């Protein structure tokens, strides 16, 4: 088994916490996607910015996290559920990375909306990749839930 990489974007550190758990459980490397222009610190301001970016299919420039993934077979991709989709920095990564032949494993954090269209949207952006069942968590997830999911998809070290 190859070492996986956990790539994520997090606005309020909830997705970051889940990404860190996944990296620990899988002994994977971890990368945070950091956009050049951070989102507003206010929830209302951020939602206006994000809604506009998602509707336009905007790909923000990334300062870090989007290094090549050629040495990884398994790529966990994490995001908050924003308007039933992934955060725009995820779109930037998906469109810039060579994911052909890679196994993509999505995960998201949400306030009640589950995956929304995230898995569908990732599969559209990655037609030449294998997509494994993902994990959608609210802020009160626990390590056992994460471990059980990782065991169920067969990505263990």
TrEMBL record:
InterPro entries: Flavodoxin/NO_synth (IPR008254), Flavoprotein-like_sf (IPR029039). One of its GO terms (molecular function) is oxidoreductase activity, acting on NAD(P)H. Gene3D superfamilies: 3.40.50.360. Residues 4-152 form the Flavodoxin-like domain. This is Flavodoxin. It comes from Desulfosporosinus meridiei (strain ATCC BAA-275 / DSM 13257 / KCTC 12902 / NCIMB 13706 / S10).
